[in-house]
Automatic annotation (TrEMBL):
Record's keyword terms, sorted: Amino-acid biosynthesis, Histidine biosynthesis, Hydrolase, Methionine biosynthesis, Multifunctional enzyme, NADP, One-carbon metabolism, Oxidoreductase, Purine biosynthesis
Pathway note: One-carbon metabolism; tetrahydrofolate interconversion
InterPro entries: Aminoacid_DH-like_N_sf (IPR046346), NAD(P)-bd_dom_sf (IPR036291), THF_DH/CycHdrlase (IPR000672), THF_DH/CycHdrlase_cat_dom (IPR020630), THF_DH/CycHdrlase_CS (IPR020867), THF_DH/CycHdrlase_NAD-bd_dom (IPR020631)
Top-level taxonomy: Bacteria, Pseudomonadati, Pseudomonadota, Betaproteobacteria, Burkholderiales
Protein name: Bifunctional protein FolD
Binding residue positions for NADP(+): G165, R166, S167
UniProt catalytic activity: (6R)-5,10-methylene-5,6,7,8-tetrahydrofolate + NADP(+) = (6R)-5,10-methenyltetrahydrofolate + NADPH; (6R)-5,10-methenyltetrahydrofolate + H2O = (6R)-10-formyltetrahydrofolate + H(+)
Family, as annotated: Belongs to the tetrahydrofolate dehydrogenase/cyclohydrolase family.
GO molecular function: methenyltetrahydrofolate cyclohydrolase activity; methylenetetrahydrofolate dehydrogenase (NADP+) activity
Pfam families named in the record: THF_DHG_CYH, THF_DHG_CYH_C
Organism from which the protein derives: Ramlibacter aurantiacus
Amino acid sequence: MTAQLIDGNALSKQVRAEVAHRIAELKARGVQPRLSIILVGDDPASQVYTRHKVNDSTETGLAATLERYPADLSEADLLARIRALNADDSVHGILVQLPLPRHMDAHRVIETISPAKDVDGFHVASAGALLVGQPGFWPCTPYGCMKMLESIGFGLRGKHAVVIGRSNIVGKPMALMLLQKNATVTICHSATPDLGAFTRQADVIVAAVGRRNLVTADMVKPGAVVIDVGMNRDDAGRLCGDVDFEGVRQVAGWITPVPGGVGPMTRAMLLVNTLEAAERATA
Ligand SMILES: Nc1nc(=O)c2c([nH]1)NC[C@@H]1CN(c3ccc(C(=O)N[C@@H](CCC(=O)O)C(=O)O)cc3)C=[N+]21
């Protein structure tokens, strides 16, 4: 028995179709949802990612604007531009592509975005809202992982979820979302001794570290759900995750591939958040 695949491409297509439907409804009452994307510098990967985000948006009926600035843009000028977008009622979502050039304080930049337009869910107010269970924007990657669990009808109540990684963007918010669904949650990280002792108890494993082959078959309980957030390159330069896919799929009940898993869902949830921002702003 090999694991069933959770197909992020197929599921994201479904999510995008739902978003497109709700956008059409907004437009019918005269609202054009709009996302502003800011890219500073000319990092090649960031150029590709932001282009994808613009295309995804346009395809679902969202208006997306990509603003590009040179790497030597001053932080003060960036903050001024963000404040102008905060004040612009025609803009519902603001995304500043990361990483930013080193001379900028990414925290200060993100905290300048209005929480009502923080569709990345990176603002401290968004993080705080998630922590206490208030409405806000959830970070797109863990939000997409929750959608994947929902899509297979996996009930989290009373299940043991082990999250590997504790970043502010994935690990920590992931753990809070799982907790909100009444899972018992363990967060493992670089200082955890004997990672396998934890993962072998897990009904759900979310690997979000950025290390190839971090999770191997011997670390997985038969039938467990394995969600791979990793984005690494193998020796041949191909995109791969944190999970030894070929090994783990022999043991797991469900598994997400890389590519074609969490990545497309991350992009889809950005559209969901932007739609939500527009709906809330115009309710
Ligand atoms: N403010 C901000 N928000 C972000 O959400 C953000 C960011 N900055 N900086 C960079 C990271 C990275 N990220 C990805 C999302 C989807 C895929 C994705 O769709 N990946 C495809 C493969 C793409 C390929 O083939 O290279 C997949 O996994 O199937 C990748 C990367 C969002 N990020």
